[in-house]
Amino acid sequence: MEGYIHSVETFGAVDGPGLRYVVFFQGCPLRCLYCHNPDSWKMAEGEKKTDTELLSDILEYKSFIKRGGVTFSGGEPLAQPTFLLSLIRKCKKHGLHTAIDTAGSIPLEISRSIISEADMLLLDIKTLDEALYPELTGQTIHNNLETLDFCEEIGKPVWIRHVLVPGYTLVEERMKKLAAYLKKYSCIQKVELLPFHKLGEYKWEQLGHPYKLLDVPVPTEEEMALAKKIFEVE
To answer: Less Cβ around it within 10 Å: N or C end of the chain?
Structure first.
């Protein structure tokens, strides 16, 4: 079984519980305005790997990640469903906790069986504003919310990730609406608020993509404090 990998991080500390081996898959159907890895968008690029090769490398770090696990990120890992499913099953055979870091952009008819196999999801909720969602991502919100509903249905643990972009998602009314919406889900264990940053701007320029957020500032400490208060996170 072969797939395309953008990169790996062998000692990830922010992509799920504990110390983790993080596999960044190549390819994503979204075109988020604030994406810091636009070089991961194109499918069938990056480094071609077999599931056996990748598992072999993961197992080299098993003693370090045994209390954490493996996180499959991207890009969008669910855009390579067969490859991802095989990797999850192989990792679980070796007793490794598995997490999928996803934007929930892949239809459930494709992703359902894979989500069911993973131990948890890190689910990126872009916005609840149906008009804003296509502006931010190039797609509609439908698959994103269906993914969260499915996790609730099967009791799959979820950590929500939400990027705060001034003028887009870092708007008090929108944050309050999302915070209230998320409260009804018992599957959600944690909400992570991620401040917009500019670390990936140079990649857009290198790739020749127009970057629309050049004049958007990073969130202030006061704005982040307000957001944390609204979402009731530390």
So the answer is: C
